[in-house]
Write a structure and sequence with these properties.
The chain has helices at residues 19-29, 58-63, 77-87, 101-104, 109-115, 140-146, 167-190, 200-205, 211-218, 253-262, 266-272, 277-285, 287-301, 304-314, 324-327, 331-335, 381-387, 393-401, and strands at residues 10-14, 33-38, 52-53, 56-57, 68-71, 92-95, 120-125, 194-199, 235-239, 245-249, 318-320, 339-344, 348-353. It is built from 18 helices and 13 strands.
């Protein structure tokens, strides 16, 4: 088996729910050793979030494979001291508490830096540690709302919509990974640690695509437009003859021309053709009408598979809209080892997603034959304290009796 890129890196993970655990799972899939710090009696809140099977959370399992759990009481002086001792042996500390919460416990960056000047201290929160909103609570839908995503999502005649999954959490988690990897590289060059933070509102604002510069140039905020996009025609989701939905994104005039000649609308081709600014603006201005003509033809004449074959032959972008059940059995995802089969001690045989980063010459993610699963609350408390801090059984028993470690 090839070595993983982050083998030898140890992460002290104080994150919970989605963004932080998503980030540290990526680091773990890349080979880092993840020590998850949890508080009793519940631990990470996703342990009590659905879906459940046999009283166990599939949500938690999805985001915590391969991690080790230490149930540590950070409200206890000895518990905080143990965390600082562990930090001496770690490369990265991640946390997504409210800004300044850990600082008030004596576990802020400056405190941890004294214990380990080489530590990478990465924080994630809704609005960051400074700015007018920094003290406000935030979860994913609020991040999508305040970062601008909801203003652009949905149909213009209906209320704004959030994206289905927690995309704000996920994007913030990805930025956290990028920041941590950059800080590790900087430490290689300078020998010094680093503090960094990512905020959910910042993260969403940064992925609004052309809408930021468009607003800056035109002075008018873009409105919700459903699945439409001015980049091409036809461009929308379309219902096929066999009752399936497809997404069509015809970028260029040649594709537009070929399709509309095929459906017998040479008049529209002549009026709207042109792979230039003039043709683009004309098609964009009448996109809804042009889409409706194409939609009727698809609904009356084409199955989803027929349309897929047509677009593949044209080398034009189009995709059948797949649900998650279909994706778990998708031949392409299976070929790319993106669907992981896990034999879980509590959930039984389940499927989840793999790391989408594929190396050619190194290992990453869950490799065929591996069966990593998430930890029970405090499952590795003794192992961590013995192997990293050299604690004896008697010392661990004393810590447990004093409620320094919970489990």
């Amino acid at each position: 088996m090839s070595i993983k890129p982050l083998s030898g890196i140890r992460v002290l993970d104080l994150t919970w729910v989605y963004a932080g655990p998503f980030a540290t799972q990526i680091l773990g899939d890349l080979g880092a050793d993840i020590i998850k710090i949890e508080a009793a009696p519940v631990g990470d809140k996703t342990r009590i979030m659905p879906p459940f099977k046999n009283g166990y959370s599939g949500y938690f399992a999805t985001l915590n494979r391969g991690k080790k759990s230490l149930a540590l009481n950070l409200k206890n002086d000895k518990g905080r001291q143990l965390l600082l001792e562990l930090a001496k042996h770690c490369d990265v500390l991640t946390e997504n508490f409210a800004p300044r919460a850990l600082e008030q416990l004596g576990l802020g960056y400056e405190h941890v830096k004294k214990a380990n000047p080489r530590i990478i201290y990465a924080s994630a929160s809704g609005f960051g540690s400074y700015g007018p909103y920094s003290n406000r609570p935030c979860i994913d839908p609020v991040g999508q709302a305040m970062g601008g995503l909801m203003s652009l999502t949905g149909h213009p005649d209906r209320s704004p919509l959030k994206a289905g999954p927690g995309i704000a959490d996920a994007i913030m988690g990805l930025y956290a990974v990028a920041g941590i990897l950059s800080a590790l590289r900087l430490r290689d060059m300078t020998g010094e640690g680093q503090r960094l933070e990512v905020a959910m509102m910042d993260s969403i604002f940064s992925v609004l695509e052309e809408n930021v510069i468009k607003t800056s140039l035109e002075g008018v905020a873009p409105q919700r437009r459903g699945n439409l996009d001015p980049f091409g025609v036809p461009w929308d989701s379309f219902l096929t003859k066999d009752g399936r939905w497809v997404m069509v994104c015809a970028f260029s005039s040649p594709v537009f021309e070929e399709l509309y000649r095929m459906i017998g609308r040479d008049d529209l081709v002549e009026k709207y053709k042109g792979d230039n600014i003039e043709g683009f603006l004309k098609r964009s201005a009448d996109q809804e009408m042009l889409n409706s003509v194409f939609a009727q033809w698809v609904r009356e004449n084409m199955t989803a598979d027929d349309l897929e074959s047509l677009f593949i032959a044209m080398d034009a972008p189009m995709g059948i809209i797949k649900d998650v059940k279909e994706l778990l059995d998708d031949p392409h995802l299976k070929a790319r080892n993106m669907v992981v089969d896990v034999d879980h001690p509590k959930l039984g045989k389940v499927k989840t997603f793999n790391l989408p980063i594929k190396f050619f010459g190194a290992a990453a993610g869950v490799e065929p034959g591996e069966n990593p699963h998430d930890p029970g609350l405090g499952e590795h408390s003794d192992e961590i304290l013995k192997s990293i801090l050299g604690k004896t059984d008697a010392e661990i028993a004393a810590l447990r009796s004093e409620k320094v470690i919970w489990i």
